[in-house]
Amino acid sequence: MNALQTLVQATGLAYAAGLNLYATVSVVGLAMRLGWIGPLPGSLDALSSWWVISISLALTVVELLASLIPTVASAWDTLHSLIRPPAAAALAAATAWHGDPLFVLLAALLGGGMGVTTHTTKLGLRYAVDMSPEPVSNAITSTTELTLVSVIAVAIWHHPYLTLAFALIILVLLMVTVRLIWRTLRQVFSGCWVPRRGFLQDARTSDRMGRREDD
Question: Model pTM?
């Protein structure tokens, strides 16, 4: 396995961990146990421990339940701003652990940066989704997230370059989506948005009456 491929795999693993750390560890560990992937580079064999799998699965369930409650979901993801990026960097470093120390450091830096990026994007999306009081949008978001994490956590070992390219495209689309959602929400809260006209709305009744009085 060449150095570039290891870096790509480390970055892909960090990408998934930035979205959902516990699900990433669970999926990789179970996939190793079932023989879907492996042997993995670095010191990632520890993820196949039943202790690691059991604890990460339990935390995955807790996170899934927390994500169904709007206010709790935002609080949970905010708290994990202190957990996911460092863990993503650690997983990336573990992927390259038996290489040159400089190579391990580079993997950790790339993994940490990717973890911060994916987590921050998810956090922005979570805040926007949590503005809706019903749990359906949260459930759809969490299910989609788990699916994406599972696909990346397994496919990155079989097709590293294609998987990372796919993941980056999804990340860009998510960033654009988050930006559009927040822009729309600002327009809604300012009273300047209606579906049939788009983002801009005609002057409200009070504004028109004020102009008539001036005339």
Answer: 0.84
pLDDT digits (tens, 9 = 90+) for 84-123: 999 999 999 999 998 788 999 999 999 999 999 999 999 9
- Are 40 and 156 contacting, i.e. CB atoms less than 8 angstroms apart? no
Burial of 77 (0-12, 13-18, 19+ CB in 10 A): buried
Question: Cα(106)–Cα(93) distance, rounded to whole angstroms?
Answer: 8
CA distance 114 to 81: 13
Domain parsing of the chain, residue ranges: 3-214
For the residues of 37-79, what is the DSSP string, one character each?
S-SPSTTGGGGG-HHHHHHHHHHHHHHHHHHTSHHHHHHHHHH
Q: What span, in angstroms and rounded, lies between the C-alpha atoms of 111 and 119?
A: 12
pLDDT digits (tens, 9 = 90+) for 176-200: 988 888 777 666 556 555 555 544 4
